[in-house]
C-alpha cells in the first residue's frame, strides 16, 4: 500500500462515527439528559476515544498491514472527526431548527441563571446575554459546535495516534 491514505475507508469510518454520535444524541434527548450534563460529556468523550481508536486500529490492520506512522494516524483521526463532525453538525442544525427550537431559549435561561448565581446583577446578566444573542441561532451554534468538535478531535487524535502508531522496521517498504 502506498503512503496515500485510503479516503473511501476514512469517509466510511467517519460516516459511521457521525451516525453513532447522532444516535447517542437522540438517545440522550429521549432519556431527558442535556448536552451539558457531566455524564453525557464523559460518555461522549469515551465513545469518541473508543471509536477513533477502533477505526485507526482497523485502518492500521487492513490498509497499513499492521503499520501506521504517527502523522498518518493523526491525519486519519482528524479526517474521521471532520466527517463525523459534519454529520453531527447537520443533525444539530436540524434538531435546533425543526425538532426542538425551544432548546435555544432553554440554553439562554440556563445561562441567565448561571450568570446570576455567579453574583452578576440582573442588568449585567441581561446585557451579557444580549451580547451573546447573535451566536444563539441554529446556524451559529452549529458552526461553533463543529469548530469545538474539530478542536477536540485534533487533541484526541494526537493522543490516540501516540498509542496506535507502529513504525515499519523495514526502511525500504512504503510507509502507511
Report on the architecture of this protein:
The longest helix has 30 residues, at 70-99. Helices cover 76% and strands 0% of the residues. The chain has six helices and no strands. The mean pLDDT is 90. The protein has one domain (7-164). Helix 1 (7-31) packs across helix 3 (70-99) and helix 2 crosses helix 6 (138-164). With 176 residues, it is an all-alpha fold. The N and C termini lie close together (7 Å).
In short:
By secondary structure, this protein is mainly alpha-helical.
Could you tell me the mean pLDDT? 90
Principal-axis shape equals elongated
Biggest β-sheet description: none
> How much strand?
under 5%
Number of strands: 0
H/E element order: HHHHHH
Overall structural domain count: 1
Question: What keywords describe this structure?
Answer:
mainly alpha, about 75% helix
SSE blueprint:
Elements (H helix, E strand, L loop, with lengths): L6 H25 L6 H25 L7 H30 L2 H16 L4 H11 L5 H27 L12
Amino acid at each position: 500500500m502506498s503512503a496515500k491514505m485510503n479516503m473511501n475507508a476514512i469517509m466510511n469510518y467517519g460516516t459511521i462515527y457521525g451516525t453513532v454520535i447522532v444516535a447517542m444524541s437522540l438517545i440522550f434527548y429521549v432519556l431527558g439528559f442535556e448536552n451539558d450534563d457531566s455524564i453525557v460529556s464523559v460518555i461522549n468523550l469515551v465513545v469518541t476515544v473508543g471509536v477513533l481508536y477502533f477505526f485507526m486500529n482497523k485502518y492500521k490492520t487492513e490498509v497499513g498491514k499492521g503499520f501506521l506512522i504517527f502523522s498518518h494516524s493523526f491525519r486519519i483521526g482528524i479526517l474521521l472527526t471532520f466527517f463525523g463532525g459534519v454529520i453531527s453538525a447537520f443533525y444539530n442544525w436540524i434538531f435546533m431548527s425543526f425538532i426542538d427550537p425551544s432548546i435555544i431559549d432553554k440554553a439562554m435561561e440556563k445561562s441567565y441563571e448561571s450568570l446570576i448565581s455567579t453574583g452578576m446583577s440582573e442588568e449585567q446578566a441581561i446585557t451579557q446575554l444580549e451580547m451573546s444573542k447573535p451566536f444563539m441561532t441554529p446556524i451559529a451554534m452549529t458552526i461553533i459546535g463543529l469548530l469545538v468538535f474539530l478542536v477536540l478531535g485534533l487533541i484526541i487524535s494526537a493522543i490516540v495516534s501516540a498509542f496506535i502508531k507502529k513504525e515499519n522496521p523495514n526502511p525500504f517498504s512504503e510507509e502507511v
